[in-house]
Amino acid sequence: MNKALGIRVSLQSRGNGIGGGKSMLILSNHLSYVDIFVISSFLPVSFIASVDEVKSNPLLGKATELSGGYFVERRNRSGLRTDIESISEILELGINVALFPEGTTSNGDRVLPFKTPLLSIAQKAGVEILPLCLKYTSIDGEALTDRNKDLIYYYGDMKFFDHLFKLLSVGYVEAELSVLDKIDPQEAHSRKEMASAVYDMISSAYTDEVMAGPAQNG
After folding, report:
1. Residues 165, 112, 200: CA angle, nearest 5 degrees
2. Burial 159-194 (b: 16+ CB within 10 A, else e)
């Protein structure tokens, strides 16, 4: 799918996240529907996705289903315990599970605050958390700027097929996926403390790359 969409991905290890052989809860920032193809091109993973935003989409819904993904209703707090139990069982089978804790895509200016309830899955399943920092750096060889970023970023009230057709008109997009240090959730005093630690890691890596890389906005 990355080839079909013209996505070229480079993997960077900035911590101890690669290796170990055990399933992990993977947490990443979220910029576009393309993110799921970028991440799955390097890691076998089952995605947690929103019923409202993803399941009814013919491309994203099918891609999530083929990954063995699990759909949640983020607005349905009453089903949270069942979701955590079910996703924990997937991890206990030795399958990596990926979650976008921002709960939605951003416009690329920053990493949005995390929604924390589902992060307790890691403690429930007894697995480590692997933070990833995802960044798109250029389009057709030109640095990503406010002028062209919406060709890849997908957020707000953008229409899916309108955006997809524009993306398909692009020759290629370059992306960087940084693997950060794994976190043992058992060492955190609370879910919010754990979420804060992961957020700080991803946000710092994203800010460093935005400021230092060729894709600096403005």
Report:
1. 130
2. eeeebeeebeeeeebbbbbbbbebbebeebeebeeb
List pLDDT tens digits, range 169-202.
Answer: 999 999 999 999 999 988 887 888 999 999 999 9
Return the domain boundaries, the chain: 2-210
Confidence at 148, pLDDT banded by 50, 70, 90: very high
* CA dihedral over 100, 106, 112, 117, signed as positive or negative: negative
Helices (DSSP H) in 104-159: which residue ranges?
Answer: 121-125
What CATH number belongs to 2-210?
3.40.1010.10
Find where tokens 């309830």 sit.
117
Which band of pLDDT confidence, cut at 50, 70 and 90, is reported for residue 43? confident
Q: How far is CA 135 from the centre of its chain?
A: 10
Q: Confidence class of residue 34 from pLDDT cuts 50, 70 and 90? A: very high
| Cα 92 from Cα 126, distance rounded (Å) | 8
CB proximity list for 73: less than 8 A, separation 6 or greater = 50, 51, 52, 79
